[in-house]
Design a protein that fits this description.
Pfam families: ydhR. It comes from Virgibacillus natechei. The protein contains 4 helices and 4 strands, in the order E-H-H-E-E-H-E-H. The chain is an alpha+beta fold. Strands 2-3-1-4 form a 4-stranded antiparallel β-sheet, with helices on one face. The protein has one domain: Alpha-Beta Plaits (2-Layer Sandwich), CATH 3.30.70.100.
Length: 101
């Protein structure tokens, strides 16, 4: 069953095109993670926050990815990370045109 991994944290930038340029290699590497389906990158320059909404094949692959990602963020000096993992109700998501089956 697919699961959502929701992650957010304080970030002083970069944002927008600068963020896209700075993190494009990271984005490409995420595609190779076990169980990864897709990610929406989130950012709010007004509140200095960033993060993402990820979809993984299972709760276990979402948890495994977040454990690794938390260590990577700590390497960037980001240690106050908010995270939640949710199961996806695929039947209702399909009705509302969510890209998960």
């Amino acid at each position: 069953m697919p699961h959502v991994l929701q992650v957010d944290f304080n970030l002083q930038g970069p944002f927008g095109n600068e963020m896209a340029e700075a993190f494009s290699d990271l984005a490409k590497s995420i595609n190779e993670e076990e169980g990864f389906i897709w990610k929406i990158w989130t950012e709010s320059p007004e509140t200095n926050e960033a993060g993402g909404i990820y979809i993984f094949e299972t709760k276990e692959t979402a948890e495994k990815y977040f454990k690794m990602h938390a260590k990577r963020l700590a390497g960037f000096g980001i240690t106050d990370v908010n995270t939640k993992i949710f199961a996806i109700n695929s039947k209702l998501t399909e009705i509302t045109k969510g890209p998960v089956k």
